[in-house]
Amino acid sequence: MALAEVEGLAHRYADGLAAALNDVSLIVEPGEVVALLGPSGSGKSTLIRALAGLVPHFHGGRFSGSVRVAGLDTRTSRPADLAGTVATVFQDPEDQIVMTGVLGEVAFGLENLGVQPSELEARALTALEAVGAGDLAGRRADTLSGGELQRVCLASALAVAPRLLLLDEPTSQLDPEAADRFVALAADLARQRGTAVVLAEQRPARALANADRVVFLDRGRVVLDAQSAAARSWLRANRPAFAPREAVTLPAEHDQRGDGVVSALDRVSYAYGGGHLVLDGVSLDLRRGEVVALTGRNGAGKTTLARLAAGLLTPDSGASRLTGRAGYLPQDSGRYLVCERVDDEVGLGGHKSTRALRDLGLVGFEHRHPRDLSSGERERVTLAAVLAPDPDLLVLDEPTRGMDPERKEELAALVRAQARRRATLVVTHDLVFAGDVADREIALGTREEALV
Amino acid sequence: MALRLRLSAVPAAALLAALAAAALVAGRGWTVAAIAAILFLTCLYARGRSRVYLAGALSSAVGLFLLTPLLVVEGTHVLWRGPIVPVIGELDVTREELASSAVQALRLAAVTLAFAAYALLVDHDRLLRAAGSARRSVLGVALATRLLPTLQRDAAGLVVALRGRGVDVGGTRGRARLLGPLLAGSLERGLGLAEAMEARGFGRPGKTNLPAKPWTLLDWAAVGAAAAIVLGGFLWL
Q1: What's the complex ipTM?
Q2: Among A1, A327, A449, B213, which residue's CB has the most CB atoms within a 10 Å radius?
């Protein structure tokens, strides 16, 4: 018997211009791992929320069709009623942590379900140990890194022993190795327990490596529902950007493309607030006309190095030199919007916005409120705002987080098209994107490792 | 960093509340100063995380100390006489006004430092479990308490994002412009948290709690001390 049955599901958000889901039908069997793929805005998150009952109960809007999970109809069962059966890990771990301490956080769902008090601590600790986070049990949640928080969120979901585990882009804050381990761990644990998993993911290779089945959504409709092997062939033929491919190995050395040095760091060291050194004796130069990918594990100091290169931080020791104007796009840039119109946001600081709006495909959006846009559109607005002053150095910090493969190809094409005008540094975990966009790669190691 | 305070949550919160109450009712300046000093040292126990709270507590206290003598009329020993300002009248500062404003500033510092110690050092989860039927209210307070460090982090991110676009955010106007976006961002975060809580079964009947650890002698002593501090504040301080 199917664990989850979605039949003729259509949903339009109250403020939505178009239907987020349209005539979606789907069956999820117990113990099955289903990958949800599709472009940004295709309805993946809405489908996950519908399976959790959050659509329509939390988000409202117009809902038709039916979703049944373990025999419960989500139109009549509220998300809280489904909580013991369904568990969800959302994209941003910071927005789902309720309690102050890690143990309390993992126990929170169990407490809500009325689990016997004598079992709570043991079950929470078991779940933490299952995800390799047993040592975090005594920590405050606000002292954890993004990766640690995501493991705590997975532990919280697994602790309730759900029959359906929903993962909505849960690896957005992790480096590739950690993300691979995270998804494999979630899939393995689920299979061991007979839990079905629905995984929305923007990095198709990872999803395909762990899924039994792939569902591809486009504009709210299911356009593919197939076993993983068949899905690979379909993706290669129909949506090649989503087909897994190997990352290109980039050289570490300059080629002849670069002209004058725009930003130079010479044996710089940096420590936040006088704490431990994040960077120690690092050198780097960025030349006009070249695109450099800065890669490395979480906590290696990539963002710090990028901010030093852009002149946003001053090194504690060593020398930094920046010639001309730098533009810096931070991680999660869509959070950092200050104006009430898109054209004001892009032109903030008195810069001309017309060209940047055109380059980013934002013509027609000028009068919209930036916070009314989708997350992908917001990030295009902030990128346009960084490009508007036509900087001599462009630094993009994790620009592809949460971005679908087709949009990544567009971004890579845009950066390449403008590469001759400036030096460009792209901080990224996405090695395929790095291969598409960059001329060379700097792999930043841990502090103990040698660098460039 | 492990949750630090050795006291159980309820006695710790009671002790901090008692110190804040004593600072409000105590009449002697040195008593209020001693309470503020104790709370200041307590906050230092949280090390780096205490900076924003200490800065907020001290700057608001200094602000109150500087403004109060200009806005109240008290005493006869004039130390400085200034211009006449419409509505307020003649500005002057007397020795009595300085003494009075110093006590008020210390009171404000003590109360804000007590809140800071609560935010930084008390285990809110255990306080929540001890709240019984007031659980929803206490959870609201605990989540609101977390708002300050979140806002601090978001504000730092916003400043970097704007500087990265070549936009100067210096000065009062520049920083004031951040308030609206920060509020909007915190509302978006709140919506995400509410959704996650609903998905995790918050509000279902039959909720249970992690068992509370039994109180130690130190906990009982802290509750006794809290009662004594409040009583002493009314009677002798």
Answers
A1: 0.86
A2: A327
Res B182 pLDDT > 80: yes
Beta-carbon separation of B193 and A79 below 8 A: no
Q: Is A334 within a domain? A: yes
Cα(B160)–Cα(B154) distance, integer angstroms: 10
Contact status, residue A89 vs residue A157, Cβ threshold 8 Å: yes
Domain that includes residue A422, residue range: 261-444
Question: Whole-angstrom Cα distance, residue B103 to residue B1?
Answer: 36
Residues B18-48: pLDDT tens digits?
Answer: 999 999 998 888 999 999 999 999 998 877 6
Partner A, chain B 87-146, Cβ-Cβ below 8 Å = 123-126, 128, 139, 142-143, 146
Q: Are residues A409 and A371 in the same domain?
A: yes
Amino acid present at B64: L
Q: What type of residue is B196? A: A
Q: Which chain A residue's Cα is nearest to B175?
A: A338
| Number of A–B residue contacts, CB under 8 Å | 173
Q: Which residues of B touch A94 (CB under 8 A)?
A: 150, 189
Averaged over A421-429, what is the pLDDT?
94
Domain-located, residue A248: no
Q: Write down which residue in A242, A277, A303 finishes a domain.
A: A242
DSSP strand E in A288-373: where?
A: 291-296, 317-322, 326-329
Q: Are residues A236 and A329 in the same domain?
A: no
